[in-house]
Amino acid sequence: MADSSFDDAIAILGGTGEQGLGLALRFARAGRPVLIGSRNFERANAAAERIRTAVPGAKVSGGENSEVCLRAQVIILSVPFENTASTVKAIREALIEGQIVVSMGVPLASATGGPATQIIGVWQGSCAEMVAALLPEDVHAVSAFQNVAAHRLHDLDQPVECDVLVSGDPQPRKRIMALCELVPGLRGIDGGPIANARIAESITALLIGLNIRYRVSDGTGIRFTGLPDSDS
Ligand SMILES: NC(=O)c1ccc[n+]([C@@H]2O[C@H](COP(=O)([O-])OP(=O)(O)OC[C@H]3O[C@@H](n4cnc5c(N)ncnc54)[C@H](OP(=O)(O)O)[C@@H]3O)[C@@H](O)[C@H]2O)c1
Question: What are the DSSP E strand ranges found in 31-185?
Fold first, then answer.
């Protein structure tokens, strides 16, 4: 059964990797309980220890992917695109009605031997829609964070400076937009229905090309102008 911090906790599957660990550091710094998921318990604990070192007092623990899913309302998938379907299938039975699973994966052509500046077609339309199709009906899929660079997340002394297109059903979408505001320099943008994940995922391939052409080692981000200050 869920413990009392279930609603606040954020589980990050593959939180041992660069992107997941970066998000975990930022959410921990904002005071949210973070659960690092991994296929391997020791790797999860080592990542949790890294966070405690960087963010003294962080509420963080590690566990195997399925186990941490039992302890959080929000579950962020931070595994390579090509391992997304198998990861979702492995945790599916552990998911609970009303949970939100966030897809951050990008179907870069590098997954099939092509360049990381291109994406490959996904039958469902995008990685996020593939995730949605694999989830139980009473679990929400939301698309977010694809355009945020890992390096920028890790530099805790600097704001991240990126807009986050958040797509999915209205209520879970609002919930993930609110999470973005926990991280200095991130702004959650109402990205509408989950089919718009196709656009957000494509932008990442474009950003990788910009990083190469402009030699931006920390990664570029995106900003939308002309929007009102609040989402009201
Ligand atoms: N890096 C970025 O700047 C960036 C930016 C935007 C979006 N993203 C997206 O964020 C996600 C994570 O990116 P990343 O750079 O952090 O990836 P990564 O370091 O290559 O992998 C993240 C984690 O995925 C798990 N993993 C690796 N192989 C796996 C497999 N065969 N099956 C299941 N899990 C496996 C590993 O965790 P365990 O071994 O501990 O299980 C690993 O630590 C990707 O979908 C990527 O498209 C990344």
Answer: 34-38, 60-64, 74-77, 100-103, 140-143, 162-168
